[in-house]
Amino acid sequence: MLIQQEAAPAKAQQGQQDLAERWSKQAIKALFALPFNDLIYRAQGVHRQCFDANEIQLSTLVNIKAGGCPEDCAYCPQSARYDTPVEAEETMRLDEVLAAARAAKASGATRFCMGAAWRSPREKDFKKVLAMVSEVKSLRLETCATLGMLSPQQAARLKAAGLDYYNHNLDTSKEYYPQIISTRSYQDRLDTLAHVRNAGINVCCGGILGLGEGEDDRVGLLHTLANMDEPPESVPINLLVQVEGTPLAGTAAPDPFAMIKTIAVARILMPRSYVRLSAGRSEMTDTMQVLCFLAGANSIFYGEKLLTTENPQNENDRQLFARLGIKAKQ
Ligand code: SAM
Ligand code: DTB
Ligand code: SF4
């Protein structure tokens, strides 16, 4: 079955565009409708044109400020609005962050991502983050941060401090988004992403499956990501980690094939982006993870904790990679 792509507009001639052309929602829906084997075959073909199919990039997360967040993201255990097991903590000290970064590097991660449960960083905290970024960078790790909304000036200062990537997720489609978050808009998120891009920082942006969304919402999310002037360099696809006390605890889990298909479609739409199999791996079987890799995921969060919830043990990941002949990106 042939999938019709729209003609690439002038802007889409730059950057990663010779392969990544603009896609209509209809064409993206048609990819989701392909027989599973055809979709995976196609995604794997695209993957092999752009990447070593047996190599996976490892990012380690550290939560530099846990809990007490004023936002109302319905999936998040760190929102102060919900009664969850997460307690609000002080911002981590620089030496603690550096110890975590050294450990991440020693265990094989190439990128260190610092997350904070903020709506947006306040100046006093922001200065601390700038120091963390430049010190982590000097350990010869790639640096990533996810701190909430940024102003253009904050983005420029992070770039000057040595930030390589900024993570800011759209989470779902524009249409479904208001069911999940009311305290900041989809446009707020797009604005922050534009500030990050304009500052010359690589963009890390993706979403979550399992929020109660439908396939059209997954189509809508990928449509927005793939049609950015430059698609994100890194696309995290999270499976909701359900945490007691959050409004989304108890939501029916999506069909596992929906996750695999979403990764495959992301791979086809954004051939040169790293697609990260992100939150939710602890609840997945090895076989499920392998299918996600086969569909084109080539990055994971590596380390025993995500931000507040469990992630597989490093040793389990190392064994899985050895069984599959996968090597970690150096
Ligand atoms: N507070 C900042 C913000 O929201 O922009 C940065 C940290 S926030 C925890 C980063 C991302 O983690 C969210 O945008 C969401 O996509 C993801 N996330 C949060 N809770 C999650 C959960 N329970 N399951 C899966 N992903 C989750
Ligand atoms: C992303 O897309 N997923 C990560 C990271 N970016 C910051 C966060 C996952 C959080 C899972 C729930 C928790 O551990 O609190
Ligand atoms: Fe706060 Fe980020 Fe959690 Fe939303 S996802 S409640 S902004 S920490």
Question: What's a quick, concise take on this entry?
Answer:
This protein has helices at residues 25-33, 36-50, 94-106, 123-138, 152-161, 186-198, 215-226, 256-269, 286-294, 314-324, and strands at 55-65, 111-116, 142-146, 165-167, 202-204, 207-209, 234-239, 274-277, 299-301, 327-328.
Describe the structure.
This protein has helices at 25-33, 36-50, 94-106, 123-138, 152-161, 186-198, 215-226, 256-269, 286-294, 314-324; strands at 55-65, 111-116, 142-146, 165-167, 202-204, 207-209, 234-239, 274-277, 299-301, 327-328. Strands 1, 2, 3, 4, 5, 6, 7, 8, 9 and 10 form a ten-stranded parallel sheet that branches. Helix content is 37%, strand content 14%. It is an alpha/beta fold. α3 (94-106) links the parallel β1 (55-65) and β2. α1 packs across α7 (215-226) and α4 packs parallel to α5. The protein binds S-adenosylmethionine, 6-(5-methyl-2-OXO-imidazolidin-4-yl)-hexanoic acid and iron/sulfur cluster (SF4). S-adenosylmethionine binds at residues 69, 75-76, 78, 115, 117-118, 146, 148, 168-169, 171, 208, 238, 240-241, 243, 279, 307.
